[in-house]
Automatic annotation (TrEMBL):
Residue ranges occupied by any RNA polymerase sigma factor 70 region 4 type domain in the UniProt entry: 87-137
Organism of provenance: Dactylosporangium aurantiacum
One Pfam family in the UniProt entry: Sigma70_r2
Family, similarity comment: Belongs to the sigma-70 factor family. ECF subfamily.
Molecular function terms, GO-annotated: DNA binding; sigma factor activity
Keywords linked to the UniProt accession: DNA-binding, Sigma factor, Transcription, Transcription regulation
Name by which UniProt lists this protein: Sigma-70 family RNA polymerase sigma factor
InterPro entries, per database record: RNA_pol_sigma-70-like, RNA_pol_sigma-70_dom, RNA_pol_sigma70_r2, RNA_pol_sigma70_r4_t2, RNA_pol_sigma_r2, RNA_pol_sigma_r3/r4-like, WH-like_DNA-bd_sf
Amino acid sequence: MYAAHYPALVRLAYLTTGSLAAAEDVAQEAFIEWFRRGDQVREPLPFLRRAVVSRCTSWVRRRRLERRHATALPEPVQRHPDGDTEVVRAALQKLKPRQRAAVFMRFYLDLPEAQIAAALGCRPGTVKSLLHRALTAIKEDLDVD
């Protein structure tokens, strides 16, 4: 289970947080939580996705608060786990965390809206709205017609 799904969960977390180190930590924490609750979890993969999204949202909120109170320091150069171009990556980073997570699960993991909704803790209609707004923002950012 771990070897099969860890890379995809790290990619999901990375796309949401923008930090490979944080993404790896979040994925590890999700697996630890699943291990602790092993007998209570009927479907591990949806549980892990939901745990990753929840932890990423908390990480992004905490990071925003830290940035608000920190002095301006240059961002360190990050390693990128996949081959996406910098332009697309920058456009994705401008999205809200839930939008990034929805885009990742839909277009990278090829999940149906119902599974995305379960991972995000919302209704399928909300997923459609998140995806529509995210794609509109990406198109505007990339200046695509």
